[in-house]
Structures are given as structure tokens and as C-alpha cells.
Amino acid sequence: MEDCDALDFLWLEGRYLGFIVETHAELNLLEHIGECGRCRARVLKAVEGDEKILVLGTLFQRGSAEEGVPVYDGDAETFMDARVGWRRAKLESLLREAEAGLESLRERL
Questions:
Q1: Cβ atoms of residues 23 and 91 within 8 Å
Q2: Mean pLDDT of 63-76
Q3: DSSP secondary structure string, 56-80?
């Protein structure tokens, strides 16, 4: 097992695939929030009260130190849509990078 490139690749491939699956799952959650009136209302209520939603982490909390994240301007719906769009773009970029990285690893072995 020591110095086995195939074993190392399989382990690394599993990590990449796990990340890709988690990213797709989060993208599905964001899509659902955009389509489900009930969930959308829950998120809007949380934004208005500056509450954390356990499943979504801090995505919809008003304060964020991350650069480029949309800020709350008093309109909860605009804020929610902006945060969803921002997060989707970020996840899609990460997903493209992960898939390209995985493909590069596969080509080298």
C-alpha cells in the first residue's frame, strides 16, 4: 500500500466525488428555495428576524465578513434572491473547478 499511486488516486477521487455530491445537494436546496412558496416564506421570516436556519447555515444572516456577499438593505426578498444568486454562482464555479481537477487527476493516471 505504501507508495501506491492507484490507491492514493482512489482516495483522492472519493474526496472529490464527495465534494461534488455535496455541492449538487446544496444547489438543489437553493433551487428548491426559489420554487417552494412555503420554504421561501420561512427564509423571508428568518431574514427579517436575522435568524439562522440550521439547514442553510449563515447564508441568509445579514452580517457576513465574506467579500462580495450581498448585503441587507431592508428588503428581505431582494436580499434573499441576491444571496441565492451569489451562492449559486460561487458553487457552480467551485463545481467546475472540482470536476476539472478530477478529470486532470484521471488523465495523469
A1: yes
A2: 84
A3: GBTTT-S---STTPPPP-S-HHHHH
Q: What local confidence, expressed as pLDDT, does residue 2 receive?
A: 66
Q: What's the CA gap between 7 and 4, in Å, rounded?
A: 5
> Of 84, 93, 1, 97, whose CA–CA distance to 44 is shortest?
84
Rounded Cα gap, residues 28 and 84, in angstroms: 11
Phi, psi (rounded to 5 degrees) for 68: 85, -5
**Taking Cα atoms as reference points, which of 44, 49, 40, 33 lies closest to residue 76?**
44
3-state secondary structure of 2: coil
Mapped onto helix, strand or coil, the DSSP state of residue 53 is strand
The half-sphere exposure of 31 on its side-chain side, counting CA atoms within 13 A, is 8
CB atoms within 10 A of CB 36: 12
Q: Are 23 and 96 in contact (CB under 8 A)?
A: no
- The answer to whether the predicted template modeling score (pTM) of the entire model surpasses 0.85 is no
